[in-house]
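Input protein
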Amino acid sequence: MSDGNRTIIDLPQMPKMPKLPTGALRLILPAAVVIFLAVSSFYQVDPEEVGVIMRFGKFVSITDPGLHLKLPFGIDRVFKVPVQRQLKQEFGFRTIRADVRSEFRPAEGESNMLTGDLNAAVVEWVVQYRVDNPYNYLFRVRDVEGTLRDLSEAVMREVVGDRTVDEVLTVGRQEVADLVEQSLQVLCTQYETGIKIEQVVLQDVTPPDPVKPSFNEVNQAEQQRETLINQAQSEYNKVIFRAQGEAQQTIEQAEGYAIDRVNRAEGEANRFQALYGEYRKAPQVTRKRIYLETLNDVLPRMGSKIIVDDDLTGILPLLNLQAAPARADGGGS
């Protein structure tokens, strides 16, 4: 609506708020105070946590899991610390989604390192830890998580910088992880972080992308060299062991022959000693028996025999000792 040079705008009137009865206010306010008092007086601590109680900013106590009472209206403050949960920090990568097919995001700035032989390496690792002192964890260090990251990176760079790139990439990985775990625990104890290092795992250790082709060629050449060395060693072992076996066999045969000859000689000597003992008991009988045994062994192998009698003046006729004896009935011509 217009009034000369002035324009008057009619605004809609706001609805009036209903007024609560005075009796209702007297009931609602005490009820709200009671509810707030009840809510602020109880707190729940999960099974894997402990509660750290602060009263007017001063540490009072540590409570175990369960339902507990505290002073209301902000007099007591509760800080819940997961002491039974294993925590971890990732270096060189970040886990975006962890499920059947985990997704990772690289963080190259903290993973590029220089080894002791002045070679570059990309080291990705995980530090697994838990809180073993809630008070130190909350109040002794201002930023305990950031401090742990700085300590982990410093210790890893120090350990990697004392070793060659081959040790870090291959045979020395477990040694590096163990040494980092021990050194990091010492620093965490000195800084009173309240953290216990459970494990340090080298997730992946690779050369930087620009030098990967050359590094792979070097590895292939080293593998070929090791293969040829192993083949030569196998042939060497085959020939040497065979020659050693043959030599040992010859030695054992010679030793066996020597033992056999010695045993035979000792047996003959013992037999001669026994025979000589019997000979000494009856020399004539033994001499005659030996003479007869010798003739019995020699005469069958002789051809023609000539028997000479010392009492005869002429040579006896040749006797055919090998001929069959004459018949008893006098037959024959």
